[in-house]
Design a protein that fits this description.
The complex is a heterodimer of chains A (451) and B (278). Chain A has 10 helices and 19 strands. With 451 residues, chain A is an alpha+beta fold. Chain A folds into 4 domains: 94 residues, no CATH class; 109 residues, TATA-Binding Protein (2-Layer Sandwich); 113 residues, no CATH class; 90 residues, no CATH class. In chain A, strands 4, 5, 6, 7, 8, 9, 10, 11, 16 and 17 form a 10-stranded antiparallel β-sheet that branches. In chain A, strands 1-19-18-3-2 form a 5-stranded antiparallel β-sheet, covered by helices on one side. The two termini of chain B are 25 Å apart. Chains A and B meet through helix 2, strand 7, strand 10, strand 17 and helix 9 of A and helix 6 and helix 7 of B.
């Protein structure tokens, strides 16, 4: 039993498994980029034939990144990361905190970098000089007296050995954030026509209603184009949030890339829908009386208590979506011939009749499409991302470098043997240079030249 | 002088610089070394000026944006990133033969850019974000490092194939196999850090635009596949001691994945990054 447990542990702790997991994740991920995801079942029947489509459904290929087998691979990858960390971290931690002054002087000679030379003087005095020389090169040394001499030790960025483990932890943090998000958050959407309000949004995919606990009104939706008339420049929704429970009301405009956040729920500008209707505002220039209407297309509208009738009798659309570029207006105040004219959407037109002048403003009614998301895991994911970048930097570009200087009495009276040695956790080539510079610093010093 | 002219000059200058570096390698013409370096630095400065000029021109047109938004602009920036990565490498290793295996990538990127539509077009709402700049810069520095790593991998395989031949051969002028191996490794490390930063800035941007930091769209997925490939490469090296030919091959395979992420996805697959094409 113990043996099986041990074998299972070794399996999950192995780098082979990590390599397998990385490569199998990479390979299987390709499938979902070649076969369009999350389409209705008919799509797959049409595109691949009924037999293949059935096979795809069996293996959850149409939503493979959420399939049991892909999630299992991610789980295997996570277990591998965790077991691997538990397995190795204690030893690495030991390397970080170990007392290097305990090192047996005999072992020092076998260090990857080492150099021996002689110097005249006493151990005590030479220890002082060596400490100064090490400090000159940025090595802050400690020393300890040994039976036959003195050992000095200094290290740089010992904690850099933890870099790789920080990266592993960061991946687990990102996974944890994703799990928090899928358990306690939602992704939803809603269409709100201008002037309308909603306190419910609909979950993406399932269309399950989700109550917000407050209401969101779309006061205005605005679509603007660049000078070419075809490239959209800005989609903007003016929203008003009413939270009766908190006795709070506020307005805010959102555009793409600038969402609104309220009570952990974020509203993103994501789409819009042109509607068959117009917001009309008419001002009598003489009296400055102004009236707003929301009217359907092709209907005669009467302004109550006046002689004014008007309507939109024709329109030109800009795109297949039905964005109105210009509209044809019929207007009469009962005096003389009715005014009939074309005007641009969102523009103001002056109307002159024999008895009065008016300002006529028209803009198409839109519904704004909002994406609504609640993701309490997102900060965990971001913490993971930050940790990953720091971890990668530390793991790649910092190394744990150690140098020892061992000074002991030579057989020759009044002379000492100096052993300078060192080791690095990685980037040997750079350390070789650093070590050579340190050795040169010693050999150039007058104290060490007189032997 | 407008940006198109400056970038046209850049194309020829990179091409010429690539030819000079190849000449240094093939004809062992060490004497032209300094000319090649000066030309490359000059081309790099003209490239920088071209990008800056394009930025300025977009402001003149009243639609000011950082020129990093479509295939043309990204290729120009890719060439810029390769040039600076290579110049850094030349400075560090003082070896110009490396240029023969790096600068052709920069020249190629500019030639590809020349085939694209260079019109300055205003940004659609989805792209109007400062994350665009952070995302594109981080990704392309990563891609450029991987391009150079691929070139170094090819150099390794070339040298290794005939390592036992006579010391006067052409290949003897290439750096030591151990040194090439070290350069391949270090450029991959560098690229991996930037690729990670590129994926992360992309995720943060996606979250601020759509409320989802990851949606498994083909571009995202392929960037992750590339990340997996290089992550596997690094683990094979760090823990299983892989080096030499195997890592050289992985540097080349990894770059294929980069190219597919960058180029292939836009033309062969559909998804959220559709505006990256054209």
């Amino acid at each position: 039993m113990k043996k099986i447990e041990n074998m299972a542990w070794r399996f999950f702790a192995s780098v082979r498994l990590a390599l397998f997991a990385l490569l199998i994740l990479a390979t299987t991920s390709i499938i979902g980029t070649l076969i369009p995801q999350k389409n209705p079942p008919e799509f797959y029947v049409d595109a691949f034939g009924p037999r293949t489509a059935q096979f795809f459904q069996m293996l959850d290929v149409p939503d493979m990144y959420n399939s049991w087998w892909f999630i299992s691979l991610l789980l295997l990858f996570s277990i591998n990361l965790i077991v691997c960390t538990i397995d190795r971290l204690p030893n690495v931690w030991q390397m970080v905190v170990m007392n290097n002054l305990d090192t047996d002087p005999e072992r020092l000679k076998k260090m990857p970098n080492s150099k021996v030379f002689l110097a005249s003087g006493e151990v005590g005095a030479l220890t002082g000089v060596a400490t100064t020389l090490l400090a000159k090169k940025g090595w802050k040394a400690q020393h300890e007296n040994k039976p036959s001499g003195t050992l000095l030790f200094s290290q740089k960025t010992a904690w850099s050995r933890l870099g790789a483990y920080a990266v592993h932890l960061s991946i687990l943090l990102i996974f944890a954030g994703a799990i928090i998000g899928s358990l306690f958050g939602f992704k939803a959407g809603v269409m709100i026509p201008e002037g309308g309000a909603t306190d419910t949004v609909y979950e993406t995919g399932s269309e399950k209603p989700i109550p917000l606990g407050f209401s969101v009104q779309c006061d205005d939706f605005n679509l603007s184009f660049y000078a070419d008339g075809a490239t959209p420049k800005e989609f903007r929704s003016d929203l008003t949030v009413r939270d009766d429970a908190a006795n709070k009301t506020f307005s805010r405009s959102i555009i793409v890339n600038d969402p609104m956040d309220y009570k952990g729920i974020t509203f993103y500008q994501s789409s819009y829908e042109p509607m068959q209707g117009f917001n009309i505002s008419i001002t009598n220039k003489a009296t400055n009386v102004r009236q707003n209407f929301q009217i359907p297309f092709g209907q005669k509208i009467h302004w109550p208590d006046t002689d004014i009738d008007f309507g939109v009798i024709n329109q030109q659309v800009r795109s297949r979506m039905g964005d109105v570029a210009s509209l044809k207006v019929w207007f009469s105040n009962g005096q003389g011939e009715p005014n009939v004219f074309w005007m641009d959407n969102n523009a103001i037109q002056a109307i002159t009749t024999p008895t009065a002048t008016y300002e006529f403003q028209a803009s198409q009614v839109y519904a704004t499409g909002l994406q609504v998301a609640k993701d309490p895991g997102v900060w965990t994911v971001y913490a993971g991302c930050t940790l990953m970048l720091i971890g990668l930097y530390v793991a790649f570009f910092l190394s744990h470098r150690r140098v020892w200087v061992y000074i002991d009495k030579d057989e020759n009276e009044g002379r000492c043997r100096i052993l300078v040695c060192g080791a690095t956790s990685k980037n040997k080539i750079a350390f070789d240079k650093e070590f050579a510079a340190l050795v040169e610093c010693f050999t150039q010093d007058s104290t060490f030249q007189n032997a | 002088m407008n940006s198109s002219q400056l970038l046209g000059i850049t194309t020829f200058a990179y091409l010429f610089s690539a030819i000079l570096y190849i000449a240094i390698f093939v004809f062992r013409a060490k004497k032209i070394g300094l000319i090649a370096t000066v030309l490359t630095i000059g081309a790099f400065l003209v490239n920088t000026a071209g990008i800056g000029m394009r930025w300025y021109e977009s402001h003149q047109m009243g639609i000011g944006y950082a020129p990093l938004s479509n295939m043309y602009e990204s290729l120009v920036f890719f060439a810029w990133s390769i040039a600076i990565c290579y110049l850094g490498l030349e400075l560090k290793y003082k070896n110009r033969v490396l240029g023969a295996f790096s600068m052709p990538f920069a020249a190629l990127a500019m030639i590809m850019a020349g085939l694209k539509n260079p019109d300055i077009k205003p940004l659609i709402p989805a792209l109007q974000s400062n994350w665009l700049i952070a995302h594109v810069i981080t990704c392309f520095i990563g891609y450029a490092a991987f391009a150079v790593a691929c070139g170094m991998g090819m150099m390794y395989l070339l040298k290794d194939r005939k390592a036992n031949e006579d010391p006067n051969s052409l290949l003897a002028s290439l750096p030591d196999l151990k040194l090439i191996d070290d350069i391949v490794h270090k450029t991959i490390l560098f690229g991996f850090l930037w690729l990670s930063a590129g994926i992360i800035t992309g995720a943060v941007w996606a979250n601020s635009a759509w409320g989802t930091y990851w949606s498994w769209d083909p571009k995202e997925t392929w960037s992750l596949i590339t990340w997996f490939v290089y992550a596997a490469t690094l683990h094979a090296r760090f823990t299983r001691g892989w080096g030499g030919r195997r890592i050289a091959w992985l540097a080349i395979i990894g770059f294929f994945s980069v190219i597919f992420t960058y180029y292939g996805v836009n033309y062969l697959l559909s998804g959220l990054h559709s505006y990256g094409g054209g």
